[in-house]
Amino acid sequence: MSSKLYITLLGLLLVLFSCNSSKPQKRDREREQNKTYSKDAANDLKVDMFLFHADSINSQLYYSINNSQLIYKKTDSTNNFSARVKVFYKFLPYADAKVFFDSSTVYITDKVAGEPQAKTIAGYIPLKINVAQTSYIELDISDVNGKRHQTHFIKCEKQDPYAQQSYILMGNNKQVFFSNKIEKGNSINLYNTRVTFSKARVDFFANDYSLPPPPFSQREPLPYPSTPDSTFYISTNNGHSIPLQITRQGIYFIRLDTATSGCMIMGVEPHFPKVLSHEQMIAATRFIMNKDEYQKIASANDKEAAINNFWLTLGAGEDRAKELIKRYYNRVQDANTFFTSHIEGWKTDMGMIYIVFGPPNKTYKTKQMETWVYGNEGTPNSATFKFDKINNPFSENNFRLIRSQNYQYAWTVAVSNWRDGHVYLDAK
Fold first, then answer.
1. Residue 298 burial by CB count (10 A; 0-12/13-18/19+): exposed, middle or buried?
2. Predicted pLDDT of residue 313
């Protein structure tokens, strides 16, 4: 195979992963959701948000919006333009509540002189939240001048001043991180303004876990790590913040003084949730490789040539190989976006099923379970996967597949489709 093809395939990946996708908030409601993990929501307004509790009364809802999604209109006869985002939010006493005890509407406005340039609109909405009251925040966010909108659903956890929402992460130049997934090599500062502390204990758990076993296996995956690979302490200079270097891939669990709860930060590879390095590509393709095949490719001196040849063989030509690469690693990126917990999303049970089978046709959710249906529900050719929610000290997004030998046929068919050069159950 020519070096030109290698460059073409890598170039395709770089173009494919040029845009980040944000993880939608999942509603904790017992109902069917047809498009939970669908890419059909192209017109949704993408907003990154997180909730920070500054003290026992004041909280801040941070937002970040790429203005390319918004419609700017002239405000007057001059060359001034304005975009406006409406944020309606209400506080619910519990997830399925039919009534709410408070609500409000806030407008985010961006005014510019001349044609608007690409930028990120970021800031926060100040909130008053009772520390003793469990609540859920439902937000309906819409572009006033356009049609894009989005709904967010956030569980408010304010009772514990040492829990995740009492921390805010910032870089050395004071930029705010909207995710606790931090790329290796970054230096960050953790702030907790609700308590005063002298030092922080950091337990590090290396993220070297094996992939989940197939859905028909009798073996269960490790639910989450329990023993840290290392522990170290960091002193604070001002009683409210500590510096932290993210040097490795894995979990950094930070606890202040003698507290038992804490803040979880996940060190991830560069460009996460994208998978761009050939080592990552090979590892993520293990689901459709046999053992000997995987070991040969993983140990190859020229890993770029090895993974390219794998896809060329499956696709029986360059054009089909490019399509398979695009579709497969799109699913890997989606899995990282949707299912990351204490490990990358593609390494989870949900990630495994999503990558091999694609987005489910139907999704049913309860507080402790998700059910995915592929095909026409109730017919012999359909497949139904059930996932139990795992109580995980590091993440609320950890689900484990209820394994069964009955899945062996569906799994074999899905993997065989990939190996025959076809994308299983996926619409363009």
1. middle
2. 94
